[in-house]
Amino acid sequence: MNDFVLNDSETDIDSDEELQEAFAKGILKPGLNEEIEKAIKKYVNNVADLKAKLKEIELKLPWIEKLDLVTTVAPMAPDVALQMEETAQRRKNIKENTKGNQLYDPTQDPVLNEFKRENLIHRQAQAAVIDGIKRLKELKVPTKRPDDFFAEMAKSDEHMQKVRKNLMAKQAAQARTEKVRQLREQKKIAKRVQIDTKLKQAAEKKHMLEQLKRVRKGKSTDLDFLEDNKGKNSKGNNSKDPKNKISRKRANKDKKFGFGGKKKGSKLNTRESTNQLEGFNSSAKKKPFNFKSKSFKPNSKKKNQRPGKSKRKNSKR
C-alpha cells in the first residue's frame, strides 16, 4: 500500500485556482488546450491530364459494339403536360388551404419536382430509342424478331401446365364468389320487394277497413272502394302465372264443399231467390208420359205402321 500515493487537492499541479488565474491572464482559451490547424484541401482541375487519361482508356470500337448515344430530350406529350398542370394546381390548392396565406412555389415542391425529373428521364430515353432504331436500320441490323423464330422456353411444359391450372382455379373461384354474391344480392332484393308488397297490402287493407267503418257508422255513403278492390282481385285472378292456376280436383272440391262459412240453411228460399224467375217458363207445355216406354217423350207415329184388323178385312173384300 506504500507504493501507491493518492493525489490530493494540495499535490495537484494544476489546481482550480491556478487554472482560473491562467484563464484570467488569457493563457487558456475556451475549448481544447491545444489548437489544431485545419488543412485546406485544394482541388486542381488539370484538363490536359484528364484528356490524356481519357484518350488512354477510350475503346476504339465501331458504334454497333458500343451503342452509345448523346441525344436531346424528346418533346412532351400533350396529355402529360395537362396532367402536370393539374398536379401543380392540385398541390397548390392543398398547400394554400392547409397552411393559411403561405404562397405556393412549384419549383420548391419535392413531389412536383420528382414527377418532372421522372418525365425528363422518360423523354430522354424515348429520344435515345428513336435515334438508335434509326441508326440500326441504316446499318441494316434487324430490330424485330422474325415470325418463324422459335426460341427455347425458359420454363418446361409441365411447369406452364401447373401455372395454367392454378390460373384456371383462381378464375373459377372468383366466378363462384361473384355468383354467390349476386345470388345474395338477389335474395336481399326479393326479400325487400316482398316486405314492401306486404306493407302495401296491409296499408290498403287498413284503409279499406277504415272506409268500411265510416260507412257502417253512417259517416260516408261512398262504396267505390269496394268496386276498386273487386277489380284488383279480378285482375290478379286473370294473370297467366302458373302458380295462380287451380287444379280440377281443387275446383271440384270447392264446388262441392264451398269456401267455408255458414252451410246450414243455404238452400232455403229467400226474398231474392223467390223473385228470381229466370229458370221458370210458364208457356212450355207438359210432355205426355208414355207408359209403354216409360218416358216423357210424346208418341210419334211410325212411318210403316200396320193397319188394324177391321181395316185389313175390309180391304180384302
Automatic annotation (TrEMBL):
Gene Ontology terms: biological process: ribosomal large subunit biogenesis; rRNA processing
Source species: Parnassius mnemosyne (clouded apollo)
Pfam families in the record: Ebp2
Function text: Required for the processing of the 27S pre-rRNA.
Domain of life, source organism: Eukaryota
Biased composition, class Basic residues, residue ranges: 299-317
Keyword Cell division: no
Annotated keywords: Coiled coil, Nucleus, Ribosome biogenesis
Protein family membership: Belongs to the EBP2 family.
Compartments it resides in: Nucleus, Nucleolus
Entry coiled-coil feature ranges: 33-60
Region of interest: Disordered: 223-317
Stored InterPro entries: Ebp2
The protein's name in its UniProt record: rRNA-processing protein EBP2
GO cellular component: nuclear periphery; nucleolus; preribosome, large subunit precursor
